[in-house]
Amino acid sequence: MKICILSVDFYPNTGGIARYGLELARALIRRGNNVSAITRRHGSDTPKNEQVSGINIYRARYRRWKIIGVLLYVFSSWLKLRSLAKNGVDVSHALIWLPDGLVSLLGLKFLSIPYYVTIHAAEIVLNSRGIKGAILKQLMRMILSNARAIIAVSDFTRDKIRNYGINVDRIVVIPNGTDPFKFNTNMDYAEIITKHNLSGKRVILTTGRLVERKGHDMVIKAIPQVIQKIPNAIYLIVGGGEELSRLKELVSNLRIQQHVIFTGFVSEEELPKYYNACDVFIMPSREITSKGDAEGFGIVYLEANACGKPVIGGRSGGISSAIVEGVTGLLVNPLNVEEISNSLVQLLHDKDLALKLGNNGRCRVEEELNWDSIASKINKEYLRVSANKDNSSL
Description:
By secondary structure, the chain is of the alpha/beta class. It has two domains: 2-177 and 370-386, Glycogen Phosphorylase B (Rossmann fold); 190-367, Glycogen Phosphorylase B (Rossmann fold, 3-Layer(aba) Sandwich). The chain is built from 14 helices and 14 strands. The strands form two sheets. The chain has an eight-stranded mixed β-sheet with strand order 3-4-2-1-5-6-7-8, sandwiched between helices. The protein has a six-stranded parallel β-sheet with strand order 11-10-9-12-13-14, with helices on both faces. Helix 7 (216-229) crosses helix 12 (337-349). The two termini are 25 Å apart.
């Protein structure tokens, strides 16, 4: 099949949606598909067109001017999709409902290209009110209702879609995955231990953008209680973002500078080594309804599991689809410092339990939550739904 993936967030970005798009495209190519991707330009130093891992990537014009920038991107992406259609496009797949879903809708109406939409979570937890909110909700219904199928990454996401009046028959839950070859347990991570002076330490790790939702602040608040029982505990925070200064200030106020390390951004090549260097991975994400922000799944939990590590996540959003409680990790109240600290202490003390959860997580990734398995399910969805050319929209 000739597949066109549309995602304003794509390579070289490294966030969750960007990683989802790149890995899905790679896995679809391994299944014999021809895959192109339309995304936005990341400054003048990013090539307009390039091929990465067999994916033909086309970058549309984009400006951060809110509505004007969105319209510019939609128009530019539409022109690229129309150009690709001259050589045939069997399906398009929007990874973000707006603006990419709007481009796919235009592709259906004017080029007869059926499309699919993946819904993650935060992008549909709309908090806009008044006329803007009404317009966005109506636009979402229009885009989702005309999709051949809507792929929800978790039960939580599926339920959120239902709240917008979308026919449940159009929704299929297909979770995220990870790469068990890239993230594995047989890795030399000595350089990480040396770089951050972690020899003899019990290492707690969080990776990801430093945003309020991820819950770095709650882990930091739990560290004083953790080190009372485990004095050699170190909290390693990988990533950068808007919360950096606030988190550093919190660490300073709690006087735990010797127990918290901010690494900043690390490369994709280094990331698996950081997982291997830790004893426990934690990201107690919480839903922030005032900002329309939620964790739809959490690929990082799978990455840590793939490296044989036990994980702790917040009991919120779609995290329960990423973590099987008591099997691959633990779920906690993301707003309860004591519960977070107790879970960390439990896994740092009970090495047998930590090993069991990590091994279970690794097996789960190998058996079902890897990109080849996920791509196979999505590919079957393309073929199943596309076989019925008369499938009507809602």
